[in-house]
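Q: Give me a protein?
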Amino acid sequence: MIEEIFDLVLKTVDLPLYGEVKVKDVLFAIVVVVIASVIAKFIVMSLRRSLADKMRKDQLELLVKAVYAVVIIFAFVSVTPALGINLTGLLVAGGIIGVAIGFASQRVISNFLSGLFLIAERPIRIGDQIVVDNISGIVEDMSIMSTIVRTYDGLYVRIPNERVFTSNITNPVANVARRFEYAIQISYRDDANKAIEIIRNVVERHPFALKIPPPQVFVDSLGDSGVNIIARIWAPSSVWYEVKMSLLWEIKVELEKNGIEIPFPQRVVWFGKEA
């Protein structure tokens, strides 16, 4: 389109030649590069606005510079035929080198692209508790190449973004509430209905045990040593572990106060009569 406009404007003008290149071709190349520069700046501004709160400043600057350079290089390569520059040999050599570098750095490129997808999708954020490929902990940092996780044991773990993006990500705090459950066994001699009522009362008194969804306490099965009662309780995700730890002890203490026995494993042995 731009070349057609130049032809219309300059068709009556006999421009001089510099070698085999007309001034028209030089002007066309300059205009294309200028327009590409404007487009590149617009793309850079859009990236800065959309990714300002999703990437660190140094990483964002590196990304926008790379995008700007790619646009300008593409524009320059597109106008080289008009300037009489033959890039065939250079492109062939560059292609061979590019293939070699591509094979050598395919994991690096994969991590880079995975980092961009993670930034766009945002399945995890800094401060989230996550489980990725059997690694569980708190997200300390997210870069364009890797994700840093501090495990619950205090270990520093760097996970390549390709591994994060292609693995199943479990985020325990993504939802507001989280459920946990206990398996509590009582003796066959004790009243199961009374035990269920005691457990319910303990749960309802706890300030962080949620009323909605309501807790569930019920007889699940009849075991070898006693009656198995299941208690399912919902708590805010931010404190669910503390609630789980404290409630179990409170239930045990309250059951013992009311004479409900938590039995030891038992076996009945029968001796056959001697022949």
